[in-house]
Design goal:
Length: 399
């Protein structure tokens, strides 16, 4: 009886030690995978710069405790394990609004809903598109009269390039011929005379011609090669319509590589242990400029997260002297290559102050871009057209 109790005691002890060690062993094996926890949100405090001082003021102990809790604790282990099992079984994460197909990986429900909306409410949306196109044309005309280039870029989410993999389960009437049934802001802008780069039809033609992927399976944004294609198209339009000395961008031969950076944003959101079976090589550009660059324009770029890969290509090609970026026409980030500095006015700053500064930036810039991804078109330029028309005239800001 005593021997039996000892065996049971040892078994329980071993089991407890193994359970306590599992999170740490898993962390070591996977080298602390990144990504916010699905169903749980926490942030790690900044790493102490001075460990000795941090030890005595106890901030080092606090950092170690939080690091263990977030990356090694049972909560992180259980959440990731549940996510892994759930995604493997059902191939979707509905709380994250992410779905997957065998052919093109992850899709965002926001994108799917946007495309469905353009089918169901086609006439209503086209009427509104006409109103917004008239405003954007007035913005363009005012800036062109001051010798500046203004253009609109419509970013492209995955359903707008690869609808067929979704079928009637997700799309109204299925993916076949859906763009003939859907409203299209790009067509309305083009008919109104606005300088427009509509990524959807451009990238669909690119895929049909080259067979290259424009969106990684593990991501929900377009990939870096697609972003470079749009940047190339932008500089070509500027050169042909306004400034003939605009730098010529070259995306180079696409090289396939395992997805990284933004190309795994969807996978990180899933917060699972494995790659979910949705990682495969995706094309990356080899960015350069053709010929000697004699002129580096100043650019103001108002957009959303789909502007990142475009601006990355412009930056890699050294094709501007200064770029002011405004996400959703709220924040203001200055990339000033001449002075080698970067300055940020965050959304916590006064919104009107940021926007007033952006009007001043526009007054001293050569190229002004308004970018919106297809599912953000309904945000109507993030209030930029109305604000511009009310606060900018003859190259100066109106108080």
């Amino acid at each position: 009886m005593i021997i039996k109790n000892r065996i049971v005691g040892i078994a329980f002890s071993v089991t407890l030690v193994v359970l306590l060690a599992l999170p740490a062993l898993r962390w070591i094996a996977l080298r602390a995978p990144d990504g916010a926890l699905y169903g749980y949100s926490d942030s790690l405090p900044p790493h102490p710069h001075n460990p000795m001082r941090a030890f005595f003021d106890r901030s080092l102990q606090h950092w170690i405790e939080k690091n263990f809790e977030i990356n090694l604790g049972f909560r992180a282990l259980l959440i990731r394990s549940f996510n892994e099992l759930n995604f493997r079984l059902f191939r979707e994460a509905p709380k994250l609004r992410l779905y997957t197909t065998p052919t093109h990986g992850l899709y965002s429900k926001m994108s799917i809903e946007s495309l469905n909306d353009e089918v169901v409410r086609r006439k209503t949306l086209e009427d509104r598109y006409s109103i917004e196109a008239e405003k954007l044309l007035r913005v363009q005309q005012q800036l062109e009269s001051q010798g500046k280039y203004f253009g609109v870029i419509i970013g492209t989410s995955k359903p707008y390039v690869y609808p067929n993999g979704l079928g009637s389960r997700y799309l109204v009437g299925g993916g076949s011929g859906i763009f003939d049934r859907a409203a299209n802001f790009g067509n309305v802008l083009r008919a109104a005379g606005v300088n427009i780069i509509d990524g959807g039809p451009l990238l669909r033609k690119f895929v049909a011609k080259t067979g290259l992927e424009t969106h990684s399976d593990s991501g929900v944004h377009w990939n870096y090669y697609a972003g470079c294609i749009i940047a190339l198209e932008l500089l070509d339009n500027v050169r042909n319509r306004q400034f003939n000395n605009t730098p010529i961008l070259n995306c180079g031969e696409p090289h396939l590589a395992q997805p990284h950076m933004v190309d795994v944003d969807g996978l990180l959101l899933l917060n699972i242990w494995s790659n979910g079976g949705i990682t495969k090589p995706t094309p990356y550009p080899t960015i350069s400029t053709i010929g000697e660059v004699a002129w580096h324009p100043k650019i103001v770029f108002i957009g959303d997260s789909f502007s990142d890969q475009i601006r990355y290509a412009l930056q890699q090609a050294n094709s501007y002297s200064r770029m002011v970026t405004s996400s959703y026409f709220q924040v203001r980030v200055v990339d000033d290559k001449e002075n080698v500095k970067k300055n940020t006015d965050s959304v916590e700053s006064d919104l009107n102050t940021n926007r007033s500064k952006l009007m001043t930036d526009i007054a001293t810039s050569d190229i002004i871009i308004l970018q919106m991804v297809d599912y953000n078109v309904s945000r109507w330029g993030y209030d930029f057209p109305d604000y511009f028309l009310n606060h900018f005239s003859e190259g100066r800001v109106i108080d």
